[in-house]
Amino acid sequence: MFDEADLKALEKLNQWEIDYINKSDNNIFKNAMEKTGQALKPIASPIAKKIKPITDSKVISRIQNAIQVAIAGAFQFTHDNIKYTYSKDYILKALKIESLQYLSVFNADDIEKHVRKVANQNKIASTLEGFGLGMGGLESTLVEIPIFFSLIARVQQQICACYGYDPESEFEQSFMLKALSFSDVIVVGGKSELLLELNALKVAIKRHTYNQLNEMGGKYAIPQIAKNFSKQQGKSLSKKKMTQAIPIVGGVIGGLFNYGYINRVINVTNNLYKKRFLEDKKSIYSEAINTTFDIVIDEA
Prior knowledge:
mainly alpha; elongated
């Protein structure tokens, strides 16, 4: 049943969408990173001077290429091994139900509580991974990147499954990649365009086959989405990841960066799937009422 709690949750998510589009950056995380950088400056500056050669254009280009390859590889890996990267039964056991068909009985807020539990585990894992491998400097940073994005792909798949959708579906993989892009775009115009594409995907998932979805344009095909995202991230993350190239200090920065990044991805992915769940639940409930009304009219 679509009740008052669900209605309020949907209204709240609609407002979040508007606010998020109009917000140009994650100011809280940005300020935290700036303060951390200032606090570590006395330690980092002497070390940075000694390893200044790593900041030349060749090394930056190397990191950009590594990030692009790592992101594409992470998503290809999780695509090929998706059955082993998330738990189908997690939400069933958490809610004590036998099948996903009973999921609509629960409020979206109840489901989100369990989403947050599994999400927190991935936050901790990514933070420790960023801290541990960030301690080793440039080479360790290049190793850390694919692991980090594999963790992101994994938590997105689990969120998708918790709301009753199939992470193994080509449709959902397209939606998750778009959600990942949506979580990272800091330009307002870019967010608006991505939201339109996400809404188009929601409609297409209900009405089309995957082949027809591909025919809608390359920007909806999984390989193209992954390619565009990895290219975009290769440029934007290279400067941020360069700070991890400083041994020891890079561990602190890497851990904080990973936590902030995956936290944003989790929040955006959760909200997008939660909204879809509520919209689908409302649609099913409305159709059931209309069907009942038609039967009563016919019998009368």
